[in-house]
Amino acid sequence: MKKKLLSVVICAAMVSTLLVGCGGKTEQAASNDQATEEAKADEGGADKGGKLVVGFAQIGQESGWRDAETASIQQYAAEHPDEVELKFADAQQKQENQIKAIKSFIEQGVDVIGVAPVVETGWDQVFAEAKDAGIPIVLVDRTADVDEDLYATFIGSDFIEEGKVAAQQMAELIGGKGKIVEIEGTVGASAATDRKTGFDEEIAANYPDIEIVASQTGDFTRAQGKEVMESFLKSNPDIVGVYCHNDDMALGAIEAIKEAGKKPGEDIVTVSVDGIKGIFEAMVAGEANCTVECNPLLGPLFFETAQKLKNGEEVEKWVKSVDGVFTSETAADVIDERAY
Ligand code: AHR
């Protein structure tokens, strides 16, 4: 699914793409240099015959959800070549690469900068530089812990609500009692902090017989989700459920549960967030129980919002996504309609 989606986009895309690589020097230094150099090589961001020119500083490729978001943004640009120009940077999970890319977009004089902040803190200075240059910052999918006047708007989901809904689903699945574990997203990311807050607070407030016996980061990746679950299973053999901050980590956890000789979806239930195709397949197979949707198809809304900002129009401070909840009972009915 991931490959298919990406190849469609790569073939179609007529966008300026920056892939931050590494090699030589230290890995970090090299990838930073490359981010700056390639973004500079992508010069010419100022007015292109009235086109909307945007820079987008993406986090990386940690999950199927992230790939779907990238595809949505690149696909929109590819389908509107006369109206928009996209300068795209993949920061390979490093905040400093995102900052380098933003600085480069400022130098190039783009109209609007979009960023999915890998972590919440550490953005004040670079956002202030964009503000001084008169370039609005649009936070896409994750929030940043900065003064409200340093960004124009946030487009994305309510992560606290997602965590709360996940807790209610978990409680229902395990009959309101039992030991469970939690696999968290990237440390310091709003998607992880808020999904944990929403879930943990809901359990503490309403389900006294549910105990979260362990909680640890799996960095939003399938490989780390599996590793963390392996260690949880060793130290907590009596758990009845696992809550994962994204579907990729749940898919890793499912592998670990099977390898431990237990049945995912039955012996240990799963609740996760995102709604990617892979988790629907697992639900149809009876190996996963519930996913709380988080819409990654933000490309059209992002460009529409950027255009409004370029026109000097007012935009809401939070353009909230509307998301659903899906369980193994309904997965088979909707799997073919899933767009990511
Ligand atoms: O910020 C959204 C989160 O980031 C998604 O849930 C996760 O899959 C991604 O990596």
Rg, alpha carbons:
20 Å
Task: List each distinct ligand once.
Answer: alpha-L-arabinofuranose
What does the largest sheet look like? 7 strands, parallel
CATH topology type of the largest domain: Rossmann fold
CATH superfamily of the largest domain: Response regulator
Number of strands: 13
How much of the sequence lies in strands comes to: 15-25%
Helix content: 40-55%
CATH class of the largest domain: Alpha Beta
Judging from the principal axes of the Cα atoms, what is the shape?
elongated
Mean pLDDT: 89
Q: Helical element count? A: 12
CATH architecture grouping of the largest domain: 3-Layer(aba) Sandwich
State the low-pLDDT regions, or none: 1-46
List the helices and strands and how they pair.
Blueprint: H1 2-12, E1 16-19, H2 27-41, E2 52-58, H3 64-79, E3 84-90, H4 95-108, E4 112-115, H5 124-132, E5 137-140, E6 153-156, H6 159-173, E7 178-184, H7 190-206, E8 210-217, H8 222-235, E9 241-244, H9 247-259, E10 269-274, H10 277-284, E11 290-293, H11 299-311, E12 318-320, E13 325-327, H12 328-334
The structure holds alpha-L-arabinofuranose.
